[in-house]
Design a protein that fits this description.
By secondary structure, this protein is an alpha/beta fold. Helix content is 47%, strand content 20%. It comes from Peteryoungia algae.
Length: 612
């Protein structure tokens, strides 16, 4: 009788049927086995209160009355059983001391006795499984067997549900702040747009985070992000504050009839401005906000774009304040247009050039190659990095022109080094989405290096996650395959900053993964930074993929990565990007990094000394 039911329940658990539906089915089937049994299952929440899970034969008023009752000695059968972790049998509800405060709820329903058993999993009470009887009595031997089996099944079902809930929570939660992350933001904004006729979105950009990081260290920067996140969480509606990444946050106003977005923005700005202790430093945070109301346009994508426009405008014209979108406010497009104009003029005036940052083999200190980085010389002689004109890279024409210029400069420089007998393995070239969709990318790269007297195995094509995942028409995937067949190594750049799934590496393999600097910065943390980096290294080794750690800024980071058996790294600790002549001077001296090589020798000497 019990075995078929057990198999059905286990199948429901294994196939992912909801906990409530599974336990409700179990209770209904058990109640058919005995005429006077009423079955009830309660969960124990984090506040140690009992919460209704299943009780198909109990009326709603009874369920509502006991839902949320705190457990304790003498709190009915279930409250006492959960409190002590032991079964509690009350054969006569009318006279038993445990039931005196609650018997007026049970007796009018014809419930005369109650036998409650704690559901225990992983050494803690998860809830209770109870039989109510319509007569004054205790359980039979058969009923004891039934309850024993049911309690075990409930423990399996509840533990699995809790594990799944925790996995969902972790997947939807930002590790640093505890706020819902970008993935959860996308889900919630879609839900709100379907449910509410009038809602709003505010995007929040934390000002001067880079300055805090550079001045006081990344520990202070992380503290600042956490402080701001907590203040936003306190002021926003529950579950409506999000961290989108870096210094970007979002707040959804689910109903503007009850909450005025402008008033909430003023409150947020005031709260964020309050002084904060960040790693022992007194910091006065500031934030710039841009917002948009749904109104007639309820599409979450359009509202998000409008809020982006407003935020761009605020950052340009009203930093530290809130700007709400108005029709015609498209400053982001204007900004991109100006950026494209600047790049076009720089190309015409030959002010776009390549600089090179060395890649270091961490175990030996050998310089294995270089990543080429785009630099623009301003009319006043200043050099600015590509990040300052990244808006132009969103324009396909500008992106292609920059790649062509960089390819010519890189291949020429590498060819010169090679002819001069300087030792290096490869040079990396960063590619944009437009480069792939133009067509013939592999041939252009191979031909350019060929004219410089270099074979394709001297080239690393660096592709960011956003480009790598843009495979709707398979253009990127097919071109990556063509590159690798031609002998070009392919590196997945800034790994971990987007939504790259490791499963993509099985369908579109690459040769190198470049771990983003955000993980390197958090290596010293006891939590996610080191764990994720170690996991990526293990997975990469299993897939025969090389790993390069980006953004190494401190000796301790380099040493930590070396201890994790990371093969290579780059960053300001080793060298800033330098021009082609400086690369020549560096390689003429040695193809080993002098300071890191000295540190490695000192480490080896200390190890040998200790061993001796």
């Amino acid at each position: 009788m019990l075995l078929p039911l057990q198999n059905i329940i286990l199948e429901k658990i294994a196939t992912g049927q909801s906990l409530a539906e599974t336990v409700d089915y179990l209770c209904r089937e058990v109640e058919t086995m005995k005429d006077d049994i009423v079955c009830s299952v309660l969960l124990l929440d984090e506040e140690r209160r009992l919460r209704h899970l299943a009780g198909p034969s109990l009326p709603l008023e009874y369920i509502s009355a006991i839902d949320g009752v705190a457990i304790g000695h003498g709190v009915g059968s279930c409250g006492t059983a959960a409190y002590h972790g032991e079964p509690v049998l009350v054969e006569d509800i009318d006279t038993h001391e445990y039931w005196q405060p609650y018997k007026q709820l049970a007796l009018p329903l014809g419930l005369r006795a109650c036998w409650s058993t704690p559901i225990i999993g992983s050494g803690k009470v998860l809830g209770t499984f109870a039989f109510y009887y319509r007569t004054i009595r205790g359980p039979s031997d058969l009923e004891r067997q039934i309850v024993s089996a049911c309690v075990h099944l409930c423990a399996i079902a509840i533990e699995r549900d809790q594990r799944m809930a925790e996995r969902r929570r972790m997947a939807d939660t930002d590790g640093l702040t505890g706020l819902p992350n970008r993935s959860r933001f996308t889900e919630v904004i879609n839900e709100v747009s379907r449910r509410e006729p009038d809602w709003a979105l505010m995007l929040v950009d934390l000002d001067n985070l880079k300055m805090v990081n550079d001045t006081f260290g990344h520990g202070a920067g992380d503290d600042l992000i956490q402080v701001v996140a907590e203040r936003m969480k306190q002021e926003a509606a529950p579950g409506m504050a999000f961290r989108l990444g870096g210094d970007e946050f979002a707040v959804i106003v689910p109903c503007i009839a009850t909450t005025d977005p402008a008033a909430l923005a003023d409150t947020l700005i005031a709260r964020i401005k309050e002084p904060a202790d960040c790693a022992g430093h007194l910091i006065y945070p500031a934030a710039t906000l841009g917002g948009a109301r749904a109104g007639v346009e309820r599409s979450p994508q359009q509202v998000r774009q409008n809020a982006d426009y407003a935020l761009y405008h605020a950052k340009e014209r009203a930093r530290g304040r809130y700007v709400e979108y108005q029709p015609g406010l498209g400053t982001a497009i204007a900004k991109r247009f100006r950026s494209v104009q600047e790049v076009d003029q720089a190309l015409r005036e030959d002010r776009i050039d390549a600089h090179f940052q060395p890649l270091i083999e961490l175990a030996t200190g050998r310089i294995t190659g270089f990543e080429s980085l785009c630099r623009m010389k301003m009319p006043d002689g200043r050099l600015i990095a590509a990040a300052h004109f990244h808006e132009a890279m969103k324009d396909a024409h500008a992106a292609i022109e920059i790649t062509e210029r960089m390819l010519e400069r890189i291949s020429t420089a590498a060819g010169d080094w090679h002819r001069e007998g300087l030792k290096f393995a490869r040079v990396g070239l960063n590619l944009a989405a437009a480069d792939f969709h133009r067509g013939g990318l592999t041939k252009r790269i191979v031909d350019s290096f060929g004219r410089a007297g270099l074979s394709p195995d001297h080239i690393v094509a660096e592709v960011t996650e956003s480009v790598y995942l843009a495979q709707k028409d398979n253009v990127v995937a097919e071109e990556i395959h063509t590159m690798r067949e031609a002998g070009i190594k392919v590196a997945l750049d800034d790994f971990g900053t987007g939504f790259a799934s490791l499963t993509h590496l099985l369908t579109v393999p690459v040769d190198i993964i470049k771990i983003d600097k955000c993980f390197v910065r958090r290596l010293a943390d006891a939590g996610s930074g080191s764990v994720i980096t170690r996991g990526l290294l293990d997975i990469a080794r299993g897939l025969d993929i090389q790993v390069v750690a980006e953004g190494i800024e401190e000796q301790a980071q380099a040493e930590h990565l070396l201890s994790l058996d990371c093969r290579a790294g780059q960053g300001y600790f080793f060298a800033r990007p330098i021009d082609r002549d400086s690369v020549r001077e560096m390689l003429e001296v040695s193809n080993f990094h002098p300071e890191w090589t000295r540190i490695l020798r000192e480490r080896e000497r200390l190890i040998l000394h200790k061993a001796g």
